[in-house]
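Hi everyone, sorry if this is the wrong subforum. Our group has a chain we'd like a structural model of before ordering constructs, and none of us has done structure prediction before. Sequence below.
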Amino acid sequence: MDFHVLIVEDEEDIARLIARTLEKEGFRTSVVRNLSEAQNFLARKEPDLIVLDLMLPDGDGLELCKELRFRKGKEIPVVVVTAKGEEVDRILGFEMGADDYIVKPFSPRELLLRIKAILRRLQKPKEPPQTLRFDFLEIDPQKVEVRVEGKPVRLTRTEFNLLLALAEARGKVLSREVLLDKVWGYTFEGYARTVDTHIRRLRKKLGPAAEFVETVWGIGYRFRS
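Answer:
Right subforum, don't worry. Here is the predicted structure as tokens:
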């Protein structure tokens, strides 16, 4: 497993714990302590994934997430590990482009599980995707684009993957656990609300097309075909 992970964390003990956990599994790691060091590192190298604290000595880690969204080069997934655990913080993190969000204190094994799931998902060979069309909603997996009434809708990668998973299973009810597995690549007890948070954001962005995503109470969600 020759993956390189950049750890952006100013607390030495936590950085060492994360690095040791990953290195035992064969990952290569680099550690930087603040935002400017991370920016300088990324100007020279492209890691396969970033583990990012938000409360850094010289700024908010979300600034780095925002920069990565508009950065040219390969797509680098970001796993946020932070003490900021309020729902509004999670939503903002995902909006800024984080692929996953873990609140301190955290389980190193859980972090490892999530990192492996993200990298495994990115490494999967893909068949040539077909554009999906439903009345005034269009989903283009190849371009990772969504259009409603002909107008582009800007979604995060996770929101897009969630919509695509529902659309591909149109007419079938998918539980939160199944969606966690399909979209995030893992099922972890206590994280079903992550799906609910993303569904709310997705519906808001879809506007009139929000009606395609139905809630099946007590079970999960379904794409109305």
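For your construct planning: The chain is about 40% helix and 25% strand. The chain has two domains: 4-123, 132-223.
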